[in-house]
């Protein structure tokens, strides 16, 4: 009924040695699993942070709803007709969270060189949110704010100002605190029709 195994090579391994090897294998597997779980958790956290930052750089930006300029008969004392003030109506882009306009950086690039300033500075920009009572913060993409830039501010744009003469171009870039940028082009007509103080669409 029972067969006796006399050959030593066919006998099962038993004893404390086998138990120690088994326990060692379990410990190694447990340590390896712990390392893999920790690494996976770290990579997941890093991926989530990267995804949030990337999303913010795409969505946390401003949309320029409209842009216009105010005619100046004596732009920055030049004696010529030009655009002395820029007026923008801006809104937060679709999917954006709250956008603090005081932390928005504006960059102007044109014939007079490059100028950079923040909307939260005293000069040369002025911000007026006319759709909510919040302090310079766009809380919804239905909110609207008017950003006025005084190009004739000699204290910011040197003595000559940064006024735009007829036929000149200007690139304006708005960059939010999340480093999301919106660029718009200003093109002044070759002939400005209107009187001093009149607003023209640009």
**How many E strands?**
12
| Estimated helix fraction | 10-25%
Radius of gyration: 33 Å
SSE order? HEEEEEEEEEEEE
Question: What count of structural domains?
Answer: 2
How large is the share of residues in beta strands? 25-35%
The CATH homologous superfamily of the largest domain corresponds to Immunoglobulins
First-last Cα distance: 104 Å
What is the name of the CATH architecture of the largest domain?
Answer: Sandwich
Structural class, from secondary structure content? alpha+beta
Number of helices: 1
Low-confidence stretches: none
- The 3D shape can be described as rod-shaped
CATH class term of the largest domain? Mainly Beta
What kind of assembly state do the chains in view correspond to? Answer: single chain
How confident is the prediction overall: mean pLDDT? 80
Structural overview:
By secondary structure, the protein is an alpha+beta fold. It has 2 domains: 15-59; 61-201, Immunoglobulins (Immunoglobulin-like), CATH 2.60.40. The chain is 22% helix and 34% strand. It contains 1 helix and 12 strands; from the N terminus they run αββββββββββββ. The protein has one helix at 16-59, and strands at 62-72, 82-92, 99-100, 105-110, 113-118, 125-129, 137-138, 145-150, 164-165, 169-175, 181-187, 199-201. Strands 1, 2, 6, 8, 9 and 12 form a 6-stranded antiparallel sheet that branches. The chain has a 4-stranded antiparallel sheet with strand order 5-4-10-11, with no helix packed on it. Strand 4 (105-110) and strand 5 form a beta hairpin. The radius of gyration is 33 Å and the shape is rod-shaped.
């Amino acid at each position: 009924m029972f067969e006796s195994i006399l050959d030593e090579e066919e006998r099962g391994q038993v004893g404390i040695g086998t138990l120690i090897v088994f326990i060692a294998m379990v410990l190694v597997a447990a340590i390896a699993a712990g390392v893999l779980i920790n690494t996976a958790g770290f990579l997941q956290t890093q991926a989530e942070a990267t995804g949030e930052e990337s999303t913010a750089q795409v969505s946390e930006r401003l949309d320029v709803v409209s842009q216009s300029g105010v005619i100046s008969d004596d732009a920055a004392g030049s004696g010529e007709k030009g655009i002395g003030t820029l007026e923008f109506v801006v809104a937060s882009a679709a999917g954006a969270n709250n956008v603090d306009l005081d932390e928005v950086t504006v960059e102007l690039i044109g014939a007079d060189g490059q100028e950079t300033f923040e909307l939260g500075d005293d000069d040369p920009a002025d911000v007026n949110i006319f759709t909510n009572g919040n302090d310079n913060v766009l809380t919804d993409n239905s909110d609207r704010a008017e950003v006025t830039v005084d190009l004739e501010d000699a204290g910011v744009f040197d003595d000559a100002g940064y006024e735009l003469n007829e036929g000149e171009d200007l690139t304006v870039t708005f960059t939010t605190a999340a480093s999301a940028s919106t660029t718009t082009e200003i093109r002044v007509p070759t002939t400005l029709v209107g009187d001093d103080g009149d607003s023209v669409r640009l």
